[in-house]
Amino acid sequence: MPREVRERQMLDAAVEVFARRGYRAASMDEIAELAGASKPLVYLYLNSKEELFSACIRREAESLIQEIQAGVEPGDSAERRLWCGLRAFFAHTAEHPDGWAVLSCQARIHGEPFALVVAELRQRIVDLVTRLIAECAQPDGGRKPLSAREVSGLAHALVGAAESLAGWANHRTGAVPSARETAATLMNMAWVGLENLTGGRRWPPAAAV
């Protein structure tokens, strides 16, 4: 079997075990057994449990970023690109719940160097969303301009809300919302709010001051 195929099997098995057991409780024996490989072979390919976990995080992070980028057509309007990017994000996290669990939970609670990789992933997504919001907020007709600080704050808020919604959707009991429904939930909050801001409507209104 080619090395890249065998290594992919090991990473697939490791993501499943890390998501289910957590980093500390996961055993290399269980990962090797699930991958259909010997433990010495897993160590030969991936050196240590720490390096295996890091490889899982990087692979899942890159896969998520690529999915979001593939879902966004450069020629579309900023509004549609934001919508398609959110839909791609929720579709990917729903289709790869173990990978999302490793990224959103396991990698963050075990400190460096794992948390740094996730922070890099998050910043790449924030940067993408920041550009889209900045384009959406360009003064046009009656639209009001937004400051760079406002755009940055909105981008971080949107990404945080998306992460929270993905966890909510993936751990619901009963009917699970589709990626389209979850993305629409966030667009209903974010896009309507952005339209209000660029239209000059802000919190607090005069009546609430």
Task: Outline the structure in words.
The structure is a single chain. The chain is an all-alpha fold and 209 residues long. The protein has nine helices and no strands. The longest helix is centred in the first third of the chain and has 23 residues, at 49-71. The N and C termini lie far apart (69 Å). The model has no long low-confidence stretch (mean pLDDT 86).
Could you state the CATH homologous superfamily of the largest domain? Tetracycline Repressor, domain 2
Report the major sheet: none
Helical residue percent band: over 70%
Distance between the termini: 69 Å
Write the layout of secondary structure elements.
Layout lengths: L2 H19 L6 H8 L3 H8 L2 H23 L6 H18 L1 H10 L7 H23 L11 H23 L8 H20 L11
Helix pairs in contact: 1-2, 1-4, 1-6, 4-5, 4-6, 4-7, 5-7, 5-8, 5-9, 7-8, 8-9
The gist of it:
This is TetR/AcrR family transcriptional regulator. The chain has helices at 3-21, 28-35, 39-46, 49-71, 78-95, 97-106, 114-136, 148-170, 179-198.
Summary tags:
mainly alpha, Arc Repressor Mutant, subunit A, 209 residues
